[in-house]
Amino acid sequence: MGLLEVKKLSLTLGGKKILNDCTVDFWEGHVHAIVGPNGAGKSTLAYTIMGLSGYRGATGDIVYDGKSILGLGIDERARMGITLGWQEPARFEGLTIKNFIRAAAKDKTIASIKDALEKVALNPDEYLTRAVDKTLSGGERKRVELASLLAMRPRIVLLDEPDSGIDVEALEKIFEAIHLLKSYGATVILITHSIAVLKQAEHAFLMCRGEIFDKGSVDKISGYFENKCIPCERTAISSSPEGN
């Protein structure tokens, strides 16, 4: 049994079946990766686990720490320690980075907030009073979001394309943050197209047409990238606005 168990989860959106009896377990304290072609259902699975609006009509079950959460709202799941890092982090006009991180932080002291920023290579003296808005680059917003997650200390972190919009230098800090989250006791689930991100995981799943098609070591699943998926008659489906 894992900390998080997805059991025969199915979801239909816009008349299309996006998740198809998807079953997968995530072990506590590990870094997992989910890979697969565009339209495989990866992001939809993450959004359904998080309980986002528009992804709440699933059948099957999602079991967290031995209890079903399928009927719970996103706020309830967040209070239980489940959180999502977006592929495209949100902007918040007028909200400072300091207050953005403090809102969800376990330790709300300024020292803790500064420490979280430093861990993602953002100088607190420069960034604390800046707004979480369009003045930040995509990479900066991604790192601010990760700083927030580090300060939050969640039990489960779903990261959707954590390398999106990140330059090479910042990417190393993203990887360090992923392993810091694990060191804090978090179970990390990476949704990715990137072999570099996949290599940060300890265990991986290959997803296709809304179900888990294969699983195993990172070395085993990395063959997907080398071979451009396993030859079969499957055709990927559109699973989310991002097509993941």
Computed over alpha carbons, the radius of gyration is 18 Å
Figure out the total of helices. Answer: 10
Beta strand count: 12
Helix content: 25-40%
What gross morphology would you assign?
Answer: globular
Q: For the largest beta sheet, what order do the strands appear in spatially?
A: 6-9-10-3-11-12
Strand portion: 25-35%
Structural class: alpha/beta
Please trace the helix and strand order, writing H or E for each element.
Answer: EEEHEEHEEHHHEHEHEHEEHH
Largest sheet: 6 strands, mixed
Give the low-pLDDT segments: 236-243
Mean pLDDT: 88
Could you explain the architecture of this structure?
With 244 residues, the chain is α/β, with parallel strands linked by helices. Helices cover 33% and strands 27% of the residues. It has helices spanning 42-50, 74-79, 97-104, 110-119, 124-127, 138-152, 168-183, 195-198, 218-221, 223-227; strands spanning 4-13, 16-26, 31-35, 59-64, 67-68, 82-85, 92-96, 131-132, 156-160, 187-191, 203-208, 211-216. The chain is globular and about 50 Å long.
Task: Describe the structure concisely.
33% of the residues lie in helices and 27% in strands.
